[in-house]
Batch of 2 targets.
Target 1
Amino acid sequence: MFHVVDTNIFDRPLLDELCELTTLVRTVAKPTEGARGLQRLAPTRRAMLYFTQPSTRTFLSMNNACHILGIRTSEIRHPEVSSEVKGETFEDSIRTFSSYVDLIIMRTPEAGYAARAAALMDSIPRPVPIINAGSGKDQHPTQALLDIYTLERSFEDSGGIDGKTIGMMGDLKRGRTARSLSRLMRHYEGVRLVFIAPDGFEMEPDIKAFLAEHNIPCEETGRLHEILPELDAIYVTRIQSEHDVDDESSAVNLAPFTVGTHELGLLKESAVVMHPLPRGPEITIEVDQDPRAMYWRQERNGMWMRVALIAKIFDLDQEIRDLASGLG
């Protein structure tokens, strides 16, 4: 594994390995001795966080994931502080960054930029890995990884993700997190997907065609209350108003697509509620107190999964296993 641009690089064995490594990293990091051992794994490595799209969770979790492994970080958070404002091309900027660091983690409002950066790296003498931390409306592979980990942990006593019915609700047309997670479902047996969206915000045809190609049953509905009792998990997303062209988000009535105390009463006791955050009114704060609410744990899982992913990229996984063995 070198670049992490989209979900296509992951298969079931790798997903299982990353989930196992994530749990191992968390265990090793608990005692002070283990945390110090992790920081000694990559102290000579450097990472660039090139985030030209606003981000809180992904930026902080990526930054701290690097620090857990002892990797030093630098950052660009706004395009106006890059030489691109002087007319430098995107490719020249990326190649400049690669001269100084060993890893580039990037998030852009435009789709396809991480793929462009990876293609450039593959053509130069000293390439560095590219991690896509969100690319326009298209892909968010590391979010999909932490979602997989959260689902697996939530269902560890009931066979994992295999055989589960998972609902995805909200702005599915423009929500890259639901798109990426849907693609990873091809690696699990017996999964059924239900897409729940307001009119005009339904899942795009390319994802539905992808699911059909891989024989993953999916259905669409606008009737949340009718489908809730059948779900093992509901993955709620906000309306992506930053992608509006004609202020179309303002016309959406979210009332039929909101999870509150009444909706919790319709869910199975064993079901989980997830959200990639930040949330809007689509999940009421009362839900936070319910043990089925997994989104804060999901957020925490993101940092640890990203530690595991970066460790895998730099071939540190065996050293982490050795650390775990040394801690007894």
Target 2
Amino acid sequence: MFDLTFDLSIFSYLVPLCFGACVYTISDSGMKYTNVYNVLESYQITVALMVPSMLLSLRPYFNEITLPELRYSLFCGEALFKDVATEWMQCVPNATVVNVYGPTEATIFCTVYELSDKDNVSSYNEVVSIGHTMEGTEAIVIDEHGEIITDNTKGELCLHGDQLTKGYLDDAKNKAAFVKLNDKRYYRTGDIVYKDGNGNFMYCGRADQQVKIQGYRIELSEIEYHLRLITGSANIVVLAVTRAGALASLEAVYDDGRVDEDLVMAELRTKLPAYMMPLKMHFVAAFPLNANGKTDRNALKKMIDPL
């Protein structure tokens, strides 16, 4: 379901061919999520890797979807929401549902979390854990000073192992992206995590999605978490928007036409301090996706602020 320029496509076509399996591709015409479902059903697909945004598009039709032939249902590329994932498990009763994680620079899966029990899924802010490291990969968490930190403390995830790229062509980019600790070279992923007592990494958001509003450092994922709980909608994104002549403000975007903005904002005020409250909420009929099938935050920002 990916463009060939997206690293996840390597798993989707190269691994099956190496093992003598068939590969089925998605048509580039029509609605992509509809094409994905049609291929899954028509060809009785046994292994499928998708980005979580695909589930959000298919979710309204979950009660009509049954894919008993699917054996492995993998997700990667962005945050996987617990409620959507556990609902999907009902559609794929015979499948092992797995959340895998890894950046392009570590080609490409480095950690894995298997959702074996829908009633006992590890999550943070309703985002499914990215699990533990795979064989051949090491992971540490560092603070803003580059020091290794202990379990249950948030910090930036860094990766080491044979899968790690040798670097970029741009030396300046290499200096920012890689760090040497304990005589090992680590890639700084830019992802904020903490390690729980079971050894699983809990995904907390992107470092570049931490913004400063009115002097306060804010994690946009924290606001999105509360909005999802209040509205019952998985498609909610909070953006930091800077308009001409004004300071940066928080604005929320959602795609569920049943949302009552006044009621949502009133409930949100009971959950969050004033400096974390979105200034506005915007409805869009459908979230734009980039070529890799992920929610395109930059395109969303242009939709609500075309200037």
